[in-house]
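--- STAGE predict ---
source: upstream dedup step, 1 unique chain passed
mode: sequence only
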Amino acid sequence: MAKQNFNQFTDLVWNVTEEGIYKDDLSLDFHSFVLIISGEMKIIQANRSYVFGAGSMLLFPRNQISAVIKQPKDERPYKAVVFGLTVERLKEFYAKEKPILRVSPELSVQILSEQPLLKSFFSSIIPYFELEQKLPENIAKLKFEEAISILRYIDPHIDGILADFSEPGKINLVDFMEQHYKFNMPLEKFAYLTGRSLSTFIRDFKKAFKITPQRWLTRKRLELAHFQLSKKDKKAGDIYLEIGFENLSHFSFAFKKQFGYSPSDLQ
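--- STAGE serialize ---
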């Protein structure tokens, strides 16, 4: 399991370390400003995927469902530094600074090219992990404003992401679920991202699919697995994480229960 080190003296920054392969399906309620120090991270979204290595810097927008696979590379563990851009602090910033909304950028991972300002910023926050008393709020605000100012300098359209404080509205549930069924998210998160309460989500889901969400999700993931194994010559160990299963043995058990034979029988 990934080790996340939070410093009790500041809520702005933390680091993540993973000695082995670790996969998580997530949708964060804040933007993540990330530097990968070593290892490799693969991000899988509904219609695209990315692979980032050591030295990569990116902005991960909030409310985006993604599967994140972190693993060592070149005999070095996965290590990353994360700076959190919370909605609360962003609202404070944009209350004083009018956002520039020329174009609405695509809400996907923002890949940041290597820049001296970015390197300097991340170098300046790494010592925060050694704090032994609370980071003064005036310094925290200055550091937060520095992060936003650098991002705005690098990308003049970034305000379209950072200054968007809207909550997800009610959207087409069928289209959304067909795009995101591979992601192992709580039903509460699926409900929120489709603009529904949990009870409304379950009711609308049963009306649309004639089956419970849990059973439909399992069936869809196994059907995808069957296709990958039989038509794409994939191996079970290569796909189980990316289709929403937490471990290989659970995947193999569910597959055999669904189809009457194991993944290895197909191969």
